[in-house]
Fold this protein.
Amino acid sequence: MKKMSTESPLKLNTPRAIATLLFFVVVLLGMGTFIGTQSAPGDWYETLKKPSFNPPNWIFGPVWTVLYLFIAVAGWRTFRQASRSAAMKLWVTQMVLNWAWSPFFFVFHQLWFALVILLGMLAAIGLFIANRWLPDRTAALLFCPYLAWVGFAGLLNLSLALLN
């Protein structure tokens, strides 16, 4: 029988807990920055017909920075509580889809395929929220702004695909 740890999984009073949180933050902000710089909108995006609700380009960096911090904390909380759980698999799945979307949209110009990726991401985010709602409401709530933003991004992606 596995011995239960007496350490609270979410307290930041151990070097391991702090290191794990820093790992999640650094990986998410680092990958987000890397993917963002490698798949910046560029001239192609500027030539697209855009819907009236298309936000200015400058808004995406600050929004994604905050969202990645929320996603990192939710991932850290889930990892510390249930590292091999369905919730952690959902967290990883949505992250892989998140990182795949920008290259398919901005680099390969595959608007419809990017929308499929985004729909999968929305599903994984929603399932993560549902999975964490009772055991860790904080992690679930940290994903709510992310769900809203990705929903908006889906509407924007669909509009761009239809207009172009």
